[in-house]
Amino acid sequence: MGRLVVVSNRVTLPDENRAGGLAVAVHGALRESGGLWFGWSGRIDPETSGQLRERHDGNIHYATMDLSHRDHADYYDGFANRTLWPLLHFRMDLVDYSRETHAGYRRVNALFAQKLVPLLHTDDTIWVHDYHLIPMAQQLRVHGVRCRLGFFLHVPMPSSDLLAALPDHARLFEDLSSYDLIGFQTTRDLERFQDYVRLFGRGRVIRSGVLETYGGHRLRAGAFPISIDTPMIASQAAAAISKASVRRLAASLSRRALAIGVDRLDYSKGLPERFRAFARYLERHPGQRGKLTYLQIAPVSRSGVAEYRALRGELEQLAGHINGGHADADWTPMRYVNRNYPHASLTGFYRLARVGLVTPLRDGMNLVAKEFVAAQDPEDPGVLVLSSFAGAARELHEALIVNPYDIDGVADAIEMAVTMPLAERRERWQAMMAQLQEHDIVAWRRDYLRALREG
Ligand code: F6P
Predict the structure, then answer these.
(1) What is the reported pLDDT for 210?
(2) pLDDT tens-digit series, residues 55-66
(3) Is the ipTM, as predicted for this complex, more than 0.85?
(4) Would you kindly state where each structural domain of the chain is located, as residue ranges?
(5) In this structure, what are the phi and psi dihedrals at residue 113, rounded to the nearest 5 degrees?
(6) Is the CB of 11 under 6 A from ligand 1?
(7) 53-58 long-range contacts, Cβ below 8 Å, gap at least 24?
(8) Residue 65 — φ and ψ, nearest 5°?
(9) 301 lines ligand 1 (CB under 6 A)
(10) Nearest CA to ligand 1 atom 8
(11) Which residues does UniProt call coiled coil (predicted)?
(12) What is the model's pLDDT at position 157?
């Protein structure tokens, strides 16, 4: 078995405390076969842009590249996050398309490919991640790379009509056609992609998961739902309960129940709708006043994009309004926090919570939903309120599944979660935990890489 080469926009270096799903999966896979992780360094520096920073840690080689201001603006803030991100999250109204940023996106992909090629071996397997890097395979093929090339889309695949509204959709499809395997989060995403191919793509679906594209190239596609390191999260959460930050949160609640949400500050996460649903719950259940505290952790994200800055203002206003209208001298209903917490503390916070609120308007998977479940105390588990538009809802059937646009419905689910008897909480939790034990992060990467290598 040759090396694994992972290409993603962000790279997690060994000493960085980012224990996200992708970082855990990628490190595990790279350690197994040895390999290279390549991507953006996270730095914008006109002096060093285009230069490689390399590092070795055991059998893993890390190579990252700085970007210039212009490349970052066109590629990351521009085409990736102002055009593709809203489009892929069904927000055509927010799509901002320009030929200039599209050209910048292709320029940076070409630059990445050019820097990556000299680092490759002929028997490498290359795994490219997410919407930032769709043209990567095509660019590598131009340089004569013949390795097996796989792509995984972490975010949703939108309906075919939406995708076709993008001026350059045919070009993107051509880019995707250069891969050997495309992985989606759910079978719904796969179906929507195949619908697009049937209706708009220059190719045909031979059977589900097998397509023929340009020049008779055979492209395989499948659903590979990403997951978490279930036993690690469970033991981390159990240990985190005695951490100072978790103990402080528990003490500050003064025996009140906790509802928690943890999301990047992103319009796809449905935060204004969730805040309104919480307010509705308080209005409709005056007897519950002072009994439930909602902690929303929302680290600021992509602040170079106007919609994200506007959302931040909106949430500040809403949180202030809710607290102003419902708080008491000794109780604040909402705690709204923009800072980031170490992953271990978050798992402890999840374990303390009676209610986990995961209500995105659209989400590829949402690993917070899965981590919330894995972090619970088996004797006294909390209840997950989960949007039907998160990929996770296709696996976690025993959550309270809600439509995040239905403010009253989410308010009802909060009430149901708060009052749910222990026996029902346990039953629901056990079923979800069994699913997460079987389909964990190791199974995800093994299934994907087996499909890619065997293809
Ligand atoms: O989940 C989608 C995603 O874009 C990941 O690729 C990314 O790591 C994460 O969201 C955070 O976004 P960003 O890298 O823009 O901060």
Answers:
(1) 97
(2) 999 999 999 999
(3) yes
(4) 4-227+441-454, 230-438
(5) -60, -45
(6) no
(7) 55/13, 57/14, 58/31
(8) -135, 135
(9) yes
(10) 10
(11) none
(12) 98
